[in-house]
Amino acid sequence: MPSSFDGQGLAQPRRFGLACHGGLLLGTPSVGCAKSILVGEHGPLGRECGERAALVHAGETVGAAVRTRDGVAPVYVSAGHLVDLASAVELVLRASGRFRIPEPIRLAHHAPRELMRQLWPRPRPAGSVSPGNIATTSRMRQTSVRRWVEGRPSAPSTSHSPHPQGSAHDLARDCGHCVTVVTD
To answer: 144 CB contacts (<8 Å, ≥6 apart)?
Structure first.
């Protein structure tokens, strides 16, 4: 069974990407399956699962754009080590399940993240807002902004915010720096 790599094989400027390196080092056949194009262009691609189009760079076919599910963005498959492109595409299609990314690559993404969550849970800083107080819907955000603008209650303190202390931005938008707080 070939090894699957989240990266390019031949579809790389020097024609020797991660899948080629990995297959050569492991001594096994390998396939590259990437979420974005590194080099080349492809023609139109149908919306159905299994549709494919050649990925061409400098007049050479280096891979294929392959739709692994109906209506989702394609993945970009390229041969790695000891595998031809047709076999690589078939392997990716067989390994694809309910998600865009083939299952072995998807599991390889999730396993380390889950292990890190278990080994190093994220501690809450003292005085942080609990998840129950964070607004999650736009209706709740609008209500909290309206209450703050009307003067009830005072604006929350967000010392980590890049915006002015107590600005309407602190409550109006979730920009990744600010927390929207719902208070009664």
So the answer is: 135, 171, 180, 181, 182, 183
